[in-house]
Amino acid sequence: MLRQCIGPSQKDWVSKLPAIEFAINLARSDSTGYAPFFLNTGRMPRAMIWEDPAKDEYPGVRAYAQRVKNAIMSAHDSIIAARVKQTRDANRRRRPAPFVTGDLVYL
Fold this sequence. Notes:
Number of helices: 4
Radius of gyration: 21 Å
Helix content: 55-70%
Number of strands: 0
Order of helices and strands: HHHH
Strand content: under 5%
Largest sheet: none
Shape: elongated
Distance between the termini: 37 Å
Oligomer: single chain
């Protein structure tokens, strides 16, 4: 996922690492059915939604929150794109089973 989020110069990956880690920990795993955040802490982090503060209130926090939100959305989109590609590639190689019920097979 990191490869899909870094720029062409490949020098900005360090700054994106915390947001990508947050996105991975926020994503529900197909294997467990839970997000790592929930399994580690018993709860999911709150969304970054504010009660409409004034535009000039907390400008640094607002800019940081927007950057993290954009990184999370980008990471989420990358995860979905990777899942679609992996599913398509896996299904391309799948073949129907060459045996039917009642055939003898080695185990």
